[in-house]
Amino acid sequence: MCWTAKSFIRGLSCSVKYYSKDNHLQAVCLYSKIKPEKGHILAWSRSPCDSTVPPGSILPWRFFSCKEGTKVHCKREKITSRTTSELLYNDLLKSERENWNAISRRYKAMARRIKGKLEELHNKYTLSLESPRISVGENVYFEENGCIFLSKADDDKGNVHILFTAEDIGFSDAFIQRIRISPDQRYLATSLKSEHSEEATCVIIKLGGFPTVEEVIPNVFSFEWATNDVLYYTSQKNLKCQNVFMTTFTNQKHTKLVYTEQDARFFVDIYCTKDRRFLTINSNSKTTSEVWLVDCKHPFKLPVLVQARTKGVIYHVEHRSNELYILTSYGEPAEYKLMKAPVASTGMENWQLVYALEEKTKLVDLEMFSDHCVMFLQNAGHLHLNVVSFVSHSVQSIKLPTWACAFALESHPEHTASTCYFGLTSPIHPPRHFAYSFKENNLIERAAQEVPIITSCHTARLLAKSEDGTLVPITVFHDTNSKELHRKPLLVHVYGAYGMDLNMSFKEEKLMLIEEGWILAYCHVRGGGELGLRWHKDGCQHNKLKGLHDLKACVMLLHELGFSQPKYTALTAASAGGVLAGAMCNSDPELIRAVVLQAPFVDVLNTMMKTHLPLTTEEQEEWGDPLADEKCMKYIKSYCPYHNIKPQRYPSVFITAYENDQRVPLTGVLRYVQKLRKAALDHASRTGEKGNWIPNIILDIQANGSHCASSWEDSLNEVCSSHG
């Protein structure tokens, strides 16, 4: 998920500082989740914070946590009350910061030690990893530290040319998010995004002997070249993307609007098919899709509809040999299938089945080549490939190493390539590079490996039986040499929303925790996407409580099997994962000792009743519409973390929030913290519990940053400034 380093580094220490006798949780006080380097174009994780489309992906990827949006100005007659409210807000903000500053000073020495260890691991496992490359003919484009470089594919001397530097045009605090090269390589389009903002800026550079900035377009989300000098892009405003524009770079430059989405539930992005035959304008809600085609041979013609949106049907389009290959949930079972239809007759009645996935199989991604289609799949926690041959009409299934938990796809592979390159990783395994040869029909691990293999960690996959009998997967990591696991600290991860998987990519701090004797558990509860589309559907709207039941079953099974015990167990979640984590704090606080939350969504009901917020309507497909349905209102109220706080013994809680977060505004987090503290103190006063029995509820408010990820360097700087 989207974590700054200091959040997790300081979280557990402050959450459990009253429990001095049990030092397991204190010992980890400064471990963190570390952000990818600024220089990595392809450091994509499918998280609600990461809005970059993975190269090659034609899957639904935009899943925002439910949150409030931009401020809405009150009417003139409410100025007085608004001013009073703002004064109270500012006083509370100041008080929370003073409280945090006093607490954080206690952990300076530990912060320095942890920072040194994290830097050591980062240099050993991550720093040496090569930035993703984009190959176009004999040229190779790549980005590092806010600069875009050009090199030759056959150049062994390391000669590179600088094409662009973000700092030179006044974007010193921005990172490069996306790069697109025009077919004739005369233009390069790139998006720059600040870590403190949701919007990106698109910069078009004219290449040649002396590259120059041709145009700067603000508030751009996605963009693709239709031809050598015609660019399509989507504009973003208030977290929404509903307009598609076309701009030309001919002698007579002009820009025009070519598509507008009228339904607030839908979000629009642009994709280019691998053979560059079509651009697709994709309009997606959480459950429904509609695609329009732009003919790259005739980019000025109006887009053509593939299939009108049908409620509950998701579909995405690729192209090969005058046929559309359609990845869709259409038909039974309602999981992804690969279908095809002639370009001349794209309606649903003409869709023919090419390949259907097995039950409870998650399609992670799909890559199209001229004669093959590679499906990246996950089943019961194990990863594998299915390679569909369009020539022999066969399907080859390739098993992958059991330690692998996540794919790291290569950027922009050549459509005609005879080899598919990809990486495998896990929370405690740095990415390792693999290649599948279509000609040889075999999988090989690429020889040049910059990092050592992690051999001292055991990976276990468990199944917990939930309240209704459903088996819920858990992935567990621990040191193979650890003994008396029931005495070891346990960190439980959960998300369970939007059909999103838990982030299982490598993080230095996860390996660090393992080395310090921790057990890591990832609970793949319903509402997430680990077992396919149905798994998500079974955990959203009126099924949201199933995710909570799943989480409880997972934690109980871990303890029953001897993985730690409640007094050594911490629960961590971010964004929409805060719903289930916060709900467990209310329903089963005895199962956990501490909770660490990052920009948590903890007030579902109030947020979903505010229709003026930019994402409320869009997110009704995930949470329901409490204004239109009284049953929905009562159901949300039954699990909403904020509305179910009550006087009882709570675990200690550490929360990191962002002052300018558009997705989870600070006001809601402040309300939650104040109510939680009051309930904990009320319980202590009623029962006479003092000292060790009073949970420590800490809020760290970041003046900078946003709901999305920050860089490695900034994360470490935050640690230094907070603890130095």
Structural key phrases:
13 helices, 8-stranded mixed sheet, alpha+beta, disordered C terminus, serine-type endopeptidase activity, disordered N terminus, single chain, 724 residues, 7-stranded antiparallel sheet, AB_hydrolase_fold
Can you walk through the features of this model?
The protein is α+β, with helices and mostly antiparallel strands. It folds into 4 domains: 137-253, no CATH class; 261-356; 374-447; 456-688 and 702-723, Alpha/Beta hydrolase fold, catalytic domain (Rossmann fold), CATH 3.40.50. Strands 28-29-31-30-32-33-34-35 form an 8-stranded mixed β-sheet, with helices on both faces.
Number of strands: 35
Average pLDDT for all residues: 83
- Assign the structural class, choosing from mainly alpha, mainly beta, alpha/beta, alpha+beta, or little secondary structure: alpha+beta
Provide a count of the helices.
13
- CATH topology description of the largest domain: Rossmann fold
What Rg do the Cα atoms give?
A: 25 Å
The H-level CATH homologous superfamily of the largest domain, spelled out, is Alpha/Beta hydrolase fold, catalytic domain
End-to-end distance, in Å?
26 Å
Low-confidence stretches: 1-79, 711-724
Q: How is the main sheet built?
A: 8 strands, mixed
| Domain module tally | 4
Choose one word for the global shape: globular
Biggest sheet strand order reads 28-29-31-30-32-33-34-35
Helix fraction bin: 10-25%
Please give a quick description of this structure:
By secondary structure, the protein is α+β, with helices and mostly antiparallel strands.
